[in-house]
TrEMBL record:
<comment type="similarity">
    <text>Belongs to the class-II aminoacyl-tRNA synthetase family.</text>
</comment>
<keyword id="KW-0436">Ligase</keyword>
<dbReference type="InterPro" id="IPR023877">
    <property type="entry name" value="Pyrrolysyl-tRNA_ligase_C"/>
</dbReference>
<dbReference type="InterPro" id="IPR006195">
    <property type="entry name" value="aa-tRNA-synth_II"/>
</dbReference>
<comment type="function">
    <text>Catalyzes the attachment of pyrrolysine to tRNA(Pyl). Pyrrolysine is a lysine derivative encoded by the termination codon UAG.</text>
</comment>
<keyword id="KW-0067">ATP-binding</keyword>
<keyword id="KW-0547">Nucleotide-binding</keyword>
<protein>
    <recommendedName>
        <fullName>Pyrrolysine--tRNA ligase</fullName>
        <ecNumber>6.1.1.26</ecNumber>
    </recommendedName>
</protein>
<keyword id="KW-0963">Cytoplasm</keyword>
<dbReference type="InterPro" id="IPR002319">
    <property type="entry name" value="Phenylalanyl-tRNA_Synthase"/>
</dbReference>
<keyword id="KW-0030">Aminoacyl-tRNA synthetase</keyword>
<dbReference type="InterPro" id="IPR012739">
    <property type="entry name" value="Pyrrolysyl-tRNA_ligase"/>
</dbReference>
<dbReference type="InterPro" id="IPR023878">
    <property type="entry name" value="Pyrrolysyl-tRNA_ligase_N"/>
</dbReference>
<dbReference type="GO" id="GO:0000049">
    <property type="term" value="F:tRNA binding"/>
</dbReference>
<feature type="region of interest" description="Disordered">
    <location>
        <begin position="125"/>
        <end position="171"/>
    </location>
</feature>
<feature type="domain" description="Aminoacyl-transfer RNA synthetases class-II family profile">
    <location>
        <begin position="223"/>
        <end position="432"/>
    </location>
</feature>
<dbReference type="Pfam" id="PF01409">
    <property type="entry name" value="tRNA-synt_2d"/>
</dbReference>
Length: 432
């Protein structure tokens, strides 16, 4: 039997499997004679040949994928539908066939927004948000994807599940992802169509990115790291950069054995190594090496990537950036530690509250909160693990997550906007 064209497989399944094996929902599909253009629920675009035997056709036919795309929010129901039903059983869908003359391939996306999009005021709050007068001409070369993205769009695939008749859930998700940090939207009151709203927001975000380019060209995470580095270097702390790939044995020495909960969160690499989930092992090693070399008290700090497997998304990332500063020797009191933390957060203009808590590694901690979110855990040593690292002096230290500091500063709804990530630059969607 002749194999089905990819167009027909897409039509049957309403899903797309990317080269890396991610299962995406489909927001928009356009078929010309030889090409299929796909816009996924997460806003990615793919242009593929309308073939019968490509890798993509095979993946769809065999329902092979590695994992669902998180941004597309593919429901379990849809995944089951995708996995279980044969092509015939799945209800016929909405492929719109559009003739795309080959000479139109370079037409840029229309960029004219008629009205301001979002009813709320656009509070200028950071360099990237400052108003800019720069006008960057739309690039037209090599823009096959962008051209097709500008074609009229159909409602998203999961429309039957949406409560609001006007917008489907995936349309709402797309719109929310396009909002600026200060913007809000009430879908029930919204008069504009999805297409109108999306196009207007896309234009605003393009303007925002151009403003960032004109104003500073600095990445918020990088800039914060530089700011924090200046703060601690000025106060006598030495900047450390220790390895990110570390022996798993270090974690056992930290008291995070294979049987503990934190150990389940560690990304193992090979048999003996792992990605560091914290900065303490590297800092312990430096304290040991610098003892009796540097003047008392020894002050060091590190800022860098840490990795933990996490399930909760609003304030947790699997790849995040930690600051850990510590002091060893004299004046290692709770008061010194709290004063330093207050001074640090004041320098960043971040309101906070200090509470006592407990954790597995350090025992009693001094936690720093902003509303309900933990910004830091701080500790007054010594602790039993010190001896295994050759440390026998008092110490104080604290660990802060930089993305959480950015989330608070810029009022991001999710921490993803502050993360190392390709979907946002300085909190501005890049899926435009
Ligand atoms: P939580 O209880 O919120 O998961 P934690 O107590 O496990 O955090 P610590 O080990 O105390 O975290 O790490 C110090 C700081 O690093 C935290 O206060 C937080 O700011 C940041 N941090 C920890 N885990 C993450 C993560 N997965 N994503 C972003 N930041 C994190
Ligand atoms: C404070 C939290 C053990 C003398 C090298 C420094 C600290 C808490 C840091 C971090 C962690 N600890 N997420 O130790 O400053 O290590 O769990 Si040291
Ligand atoms: Mg903590």
């Amino acid at each position: 039997m002749k194999k089905k064209l990819i167009e027909s497989l897409l039509n049957d399944t309403d899903m797309w499997v990317s080269r890396t094996g991610l299962l995406h929902s489909i927001r928009d599909l356009n078929v010309s004679q030889r090409f299929v253009h796909i816009v996924t629920g997460c806003g990615e675009t793919f242009d593929i040949r309308n073939s019968r035997s490509s890798r993509s056709a095979r993946a769809l036919r065999l329902r092979k994928f590695k994992k669902p795309c998180k941004q597309c929010r593919v429901s379990d129901l849809k995944i089951n539908e995708f996995l279980q039903k044969t092509s015939k059983e799945i209800r016929t869908k909405h492929v719109r066939v559009t003739e795309i003359p080959s000479n139109s391939i370079n037409i840029p996306t229309p960029v004219h927004a008629e009205k301001p999009v979002v009813p709320l005021s656009h509070i200028p709050h950071s360099q990237p948000q400052k108003v800019s007068s720069i006008h960057v001409k739309e690039k037209t070369e090599n823009k096959v994807e962008r051209k097709i993205t500008s074609l009229p769009k159909k409602p998203a695939a999961s429309s039957s599940k949406a409560k609001d008749p006007g917008f489907t859930q995936s349309q709402k998700d797309r719109i929310v992802s396009l909002l600026g940090p200060d913007e809000m939207i009430s879908f029930s009151k919204e008069k504009r169509s999805f297409q109108q709203l999306e196009a207007e927001l896309i234009n605003k975000r393009k303007d925002d990115l151009r403003k960032v380019y004109e104003d500073s060209r600095e990445n918020l995470l990088g800039k914060l790291e530089r700011q924090i580095t200046d703060f601690f270097v000025e106060r006598g702390f030495m900047e450390i950069k220790s390895p990110i790939l570390i022996p798993f044995e270090y974690m056992e020495r930290m008291g995070v054995g294979e049987d503990t909960k934190l150990s389940q969160q560690i990304f193992r690499v090979g048999e003996n190594m792992c990605l560091r989930p914290m900065l303490a092992p590297g800092l312990y090693n430096y304290l040991y090496k610098f003892d009796n070399i540097l003047p008392d008290p020894i002050r060091i700090f590190e800022i860098g990537p840490c990795y933990r497997k996490e399930s909760d998304g609003k304030s947790h990332l699997e790849e995040f950036t930690m600051l850990n500063f510590c002091q060893m020797g004299s004046k290692c009191t709770r008061e010194t530690l709290i004063l330093l933390i207050e001074d640090f957060l004041d320098s960043l203009n971040i309101e906070h509250e200090i509470v006592s808590d407990n954790c597995m590694v350090y025992g009693e901690t001094i936690d720093v909160l902003h509303k309900d979110m933990e910004l830091s855990s701080a500790v007054v040593g010594p602790i039993p693990q010190d001896i295994d690292w050759g440390i026998n002096k008092p110490w104080i230290g604290a660990g802060f997550g930089l993305e959480r500091l950015l989330k608070v500063t810029y009022n991001f709804k999710t921490i993803k906007r502050a993360a190392r990530c390709e979907n946002y630059y300085n909190g501005i969607s890049t899926n435009l």
